[in-house]
Design brief:
Blueprint lengths: L8 H8 L8 H22 L4 H11 L7 H17 L11 H14 L3 E4 L2 E4 L4 H9 L6
Helix pairs in contact: 3-4, 3-5, 3-6, 4-5
């Protein structure tokens, strides 16, 4: 379980000059929506990025072009650097990047979401929506 920094609604409103009781209905609804988006972004920062979404994201970025395991691992490493620069929390099983990418790839191939063609990996065309689902779990961090 992860706990983040508490979010003070009073501080949030003071910093933005918002007094909900003084706002008309449309403005109040818009500001409540903005507050909700802020809270969701803060929660999103706490959820660790797992190997499967990392691999899924790289595979989708390739837009159906087969990729070698070496290229995949290199692309995942670059993605991780981008995510970490943005403050994302990355879960690294066994403290081993090679293992993490291999595990993420294995989960996708065992579920028949990714095919191996001549030693290269590619998303099954009819499974794009499920692979996109995994990738979308980290899209807010990219």
């Amino acid at each position: 379980m992860n706990f983040g920094t508490p979010v003070s609604v009073k501080h949030y409103c003071d910093a933005r000059g918002i007094e909900f009781a003084q706002l008309d209905r449309d403005t109040r609804l818009r500001e409540v929506s903005n507050l909700g988006q802020h809270l969701m972004a803060e929660i999103g920062k706490l959820i660790p990025v797992l190997p499967v979404p990392l691999v899924a994201t790289v595979l989708l970025e390739r837009a159906g072009t087969p990729i070698s395991e070496f290229e995949l691992k290199s692309s995942v490493a670059a993605l991780v650097k981008r995510l970490e620069a943005g403050g994302a929390r990355i879960y690294l099983p066994r403290s081993d990047w090679d293992y993490a990418v291999t595990a993420g790839l294995r989960m996708l191939t065992e579920r028949h979401l990714v095919a191996i063609q001549e030693g290269l990996f590619v998303v099954h065309e009819n499974e794009l929506s499920l692979v996109r689902y995994y990738a979308n779990s980290i899209v807010h961090l990219i």
